[in-house]
Amino acid sequence: MINGLIGRKVGMTQVFIEGGTVEPVTAIEAGPCVVTQIKTAAKEGYSAIQLGFGEARRLNSPERGHLRELGLFKHLREFRVADTSDIELGHRVDVSLFQPGDSVDVSGISKGKGFAGGVKRHHFSGGPKTHGQSDRHRAPGSVGAGTDPGRVFKGQRMAGHMGNQRVTVKRLEVIEADPDRNLLLVKGAVPGARNGLLEIRKSRGND
Regarding beta strands 160-162 and 114-116, do their DSSP bridges make them parallel or antiparallel, or are they unpaired? Predict the structure, then answer.
């Protein structure tokens, strides 16, 4: 059973639900997607499907050979499935996969913030503001010991490139699914900027 879709972030808005409550929602253009490859445990060692989304202007020769007559797809993403026996190549998947009340996990690339210091990037508190500490307000403090171990450990939180990473927000509630407009409304915010590519999967225990 297919449990996910590829989509594009449209933006945020708000909707009124029963009882007059206002909920912030993210609008996602989800699908339609086409099954472009089926991977089986016998051949690849695991079961998965590859979905194609968005129209590409041009493809190179290997990409055309891979997609054959299925279409020109700009984005290809893989989704694990438990069983591929009832899935066919070229099968079309749309937003009707989800129903209001479902929980979904949404993955995307977060907004890039460029180079950022420790206070902004990791929420460090900074140094003391008084007692002669005139230049320690946003400094990281000690990053390693001296003789032992005599080095800075890998993964130490420091200043650096902030954002532009794959982020997954889990268990977002589906407020509305409109197959006619390929539109999915989920409660809350999802990663990335407008027009950013998203992967929407059913949360575990929600099949």
Answer: antiparallel
